[in-house]
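Internal QA ticket QA-208
Title: Verify multi-chain structure generation after dependency bump
Assignee: T.L.

Test input:
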Amino acid sequence: MGIKLGILGLGTVGTGTVELLSDGTGRHPLLSEIEIYRVGVRSLDKPRQVTLPDSVITTDLESIVTDPQVDIVVELMGGLEPARSLILKAIQCGKHVVTANKAVISRFGDEIFTAANQAGVYVMLEAAVGGGIPVVRPLKQSLSVNRINTVTGIVNGTTNYILTRMRSEGGNFDDVLADAQRLGYAEADPTADVDGLDAADKIAILASLAFDGRIKLEDVYCEGIRQVSKTDIAYADKLGFVIKLLAIAHQDNLSAPLSVRVHPTLVPTDHPLASINGVYNAILVEGEPIGQVMFFGPGAGAGATASAVCSDILNLVAELKLSTENANPLLTCRHHDYSQIAPIEELVTRFYARFLTKDQPGVIGKLGTCFGKYGVSLESVVQTGFQGELAEIVVVTHDVREGDFRQALAEIRSLDPIHSIPSLLRVL
Amino acid sequence: MGIKLGILGLGTVGTGTVELLSDGTGRHPLLSEIEIYRVGVRSLDKPRQVTLPDSVITTDLESIVTDPQVDIVVELMGGLEPARSLILKAIQCGKHVVTANKAVISRFGDEIFTAANQAGVYVMLEAAVGGGIPVVRPLKQSLSVNRINTVTGIVNGTTNYILTRMRSEGGNFDDVLADAQRLGYAEADPTADVDGLDAADKIAILASLAFDGRIKLEDVYCEGIRQVSKTDIAYADKLGFVIKLLAIAHQDNLSAPLSVRVHPTLVPTDHPLASINGVYNAILVEGEPIGQVMFFGPGAGAGATASAVCSDILNLVAELKLSTENANPLLTCRHHDYSQIAPIEELVTRFYARFLTKDQPGVIGKLGTCFGKYGVSLESVVQTGFQGELAEIVVVTHDVREGDFRQALAEIRSLDPIHSIPSLLRVL
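Actual output:
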């Protein structure tokens, strides 16, 4: 007579979720009131790690989201369609929804949450960001008493694994990526991870929660890690930094537009995010009056993600036990408007740039003069290396408006002794 | 027309709480429904950072907890009495309670939660552990779907500050403590912090949440940091460890008794807790299937603690908006029985021990033989230093039952070449 779940998808996370729910000893007693009522799969013939009665498994996913018996639909299929349509249909049918689908939420959150608010149901998404790390619920229920000004995350395990190995082994991006693919830490098509798209989905979701406004995914500036070379990692090390793919959402003050972006970043070695290594994720939240809090843990994996999915289910079960017509204001989506996002040119940040130049006197002077013309002042200049005939010059700037910096670079590129600018990275 | 708060205490945390609630822009909109209705203080004449109407402030604390108008009592006085009696009286009068008082909860939680369950009110305590870090709510509402096996915390900022400075400066405990007192990081009477009592209160609370059973505070084994010397910190460094005051709650399996303890510990430098420095706190939770998650942030301070207090108030306001007679099972205390705690002799752990011995051949052999007799095997033996005429020998053992290790030490103490055993620390 418990709460009936309709689970869509029995892949890695679906299997982990069924396993967790099927073995309640030592877990929250409320889990015992949950019944795995229907599980939708693409194919009945595929061998499975978990055994479920034939009456539970079906390939008719639509029949699950429309079944009047189902209380909660748990969407663990991934991908945009049919996940989006099934979520919307479930909402129309008055089901609460739990999803781990960052891609759907970051693209169609507007549509989904508007529908959910109209239907008076909850859409829960703890598993969409940070795998097992409790961060969505703390943002909504705990940290929202603060004026949050910055959310900074290492939210993609694959890129963090690659960057961590490149640093520890001095390896090239291509070699480490190939090995990561071989070991199962990176997909055969690594685009979503290494080009920062997965991290962009996640920071769009985190930003909407932290800054209480919807985010257009196309407004999120996104740069991946393909350009990060072992040379840059070595220079960064010398300068006291590690390179991390950071997803950042920041607001200077309550009336300023947001900056929401994903890019490889030089992080000072004593920064809390600098020591997050391997496939781990971490999300640092800064606000007033709390200061800095950070959430650290496994960003992916069957068990970790199942923990997040099941915590959402647990919270819905608790809510359903209250038998009230009123919606819990801490579980609903409370924003309707889109946040204003500043273009990347308006960003004020420090930069790291690596130049290859002819090996002749006066080059650093020319660089400095040109930077000065656009208001770019330099924090440090390093000239140590050579690449063949060319001298290598690395600069770190003080804070500068990105648009000004880019103008300076355009002019520098045309200077005679400048051969190329192989790397350009932002500094935290 | 909002939710009426009766706040007890207007010290550091009380002031921070009033300041946060009085300035709602950019925070959760639900905070605007809160009215600071009464604030109880010891003296009306004390100069205050916040201005409140005369009609709000009173020295009659009992009148606040019995006032039929008050919905939520926020206890921020600290100390055992009258805090305990006022909390109990508030509960009797049907008020929900928010408290930051770890000392009261760890000693009288049994009485308080039993009364709260009977009266159908909530007692919220996010601020009692980890300052601003959301950890109580994540443990109750998110991580409780896991079988938690270990909670390991750096939960006392003062001792972490002292140990961090001892390491970075090579300073003595007494000197660094004196400086910490001068700078306001340690109290004039530092006993509760440096002897581990504050950390014991907090791990008792965390253990009761994580392992779903009440904890008798006197069962918590507690050792402070007075015995940690700069010599040990230097040896630990050489061996690849940092020394931290850890509060640990662990259960080997679901039928095993808990181990709940506070002691200075050698932590491997690549462990997530090793890089938590200064006054920061962090709580690492390990469970199945989630693996490791860690919560990091400011463990004390007006703003951080006010954030935790106000998040509890926010959650109560949300609950009150639901207008239901049913209690939310994720907010009530769900355990009634005391957990069984194993005596410290049953602990299985690695040890670090430092011996001062006569400088003569064969001492290490004698040590090893005696350890072997009691089943203690050694992971490493270092002999580098001299203290005056005496040789210094440092050993790190493999895992050993603490009772066996102590028996071996008792026999070693009686060996002729052994002068003394100045340090004895556990290793994570």
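Spot checks passed. Residues 347-427 of chain B form a domain with the Alpha-Beta Plaits fold (CATH 3.30.70.260).
Status: verified.
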